[in-house]
Description:
By secondary structure, the protein is mainly beta. It has helices at 2-18, 114-117; strands at residues 35-38, 41-44, 46-49, 51-55, 58-64, 71-72, 78-82, 91-99, 102-109, 124-130, 133-138, 145-151, 156-162. The protein has one domain. The strands form 2 sheets. Strands 3, 4, 5, 6, 8, 9, 12 and 13 form an 8-stranded mixed beta sheet that branches.
Amino acid sequence: MRFLSLACLAALNAVLIFGAEKYTGPIPPKTDIPYLLHADQLVETEAGEAKEETKKDSVVAILPGASSPARTPLAEPIFIIKTQKLSAERISAFKLDVKNGTREVVINSQGRRKSRDLTKPIFVNVTRLGDNLYKIEVDQMLENGEYTLSPEGSNQTFSFEIY
Length: 163
């Protein structure tokens, strides 16, 4: 009995020292693009570049089109990304508003309604899975709609729709 307890303790220490099990899921075929994880399938997010416009007292990032072709039914999506240039820890998620056939998000707001208009990022957890391989998990239930991931300080976007 004592041997079994010591063996279990040694196994637990090995997991704590060497990390969790090796990731065996699908690997993205392209670097620096987040992929939605659907069981053992990957769905490429819509890569794009947001254009900034000033509207009233706000700076708005605008993406063309009313919806993204990358779609998921998952309210708490999980992404897999293999990085080369991007830093997975610096990626944030944002909800997009659909207006006049485009998707937009307020990124800077001034004036009286400043705090109310500014879109806050959605919290995500980033886990290292291996060499330059990361899992990004949205840490809250999201409503149906349009969303994007964007590296901090960049107009680069990786959009998706929850339906």
